[in-house]
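User: I'm putting together notes for a lab meeting next week and I want to include a structural view of one of the chains we've been expressing. I don't have a solved structure, so I'd like a prediction I can at least talk through. The sequence is below, exactly as it appears in our construct file.
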Amino acid sequence: MKPFFRPVVIAAVFSAGLIAFSALAPNGGLRAQGRLQEEIADYERRNRDLEKANQALALEIEALSGNPKVLERTAREALGLVRADEVVFNFEP
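Assistant: Thanks for the context. Below is the predicted structure for the 93-residue chain, given as structure tokens.
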């Protein structure tokens, strides 16, 4: 090997080692990128779930605001309301 090329080869090997180390380092590089991609996928899944829940709530709001009987039935079920002329029987085991 010629004396001129020896330092160049040493520098190239050292640079390649540094690049490989930085790509595989535990606090960065490819591992961190994989973790971030998993986190992004998790947030996207959660966003889809929340969008479905929002759509269901929008449909419920529409049904409650459009029909007074649906509103009354929902309030009675959720809050346990009864009319003055009704009698409620509670059967507990």
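A couple of points you could mention at the meeting. The helical segments are 5-24, 29-66, 68-79. Residues 54 and 60 are 10 Å apart (CA to CA).

User: Perfect, that's what I needed.
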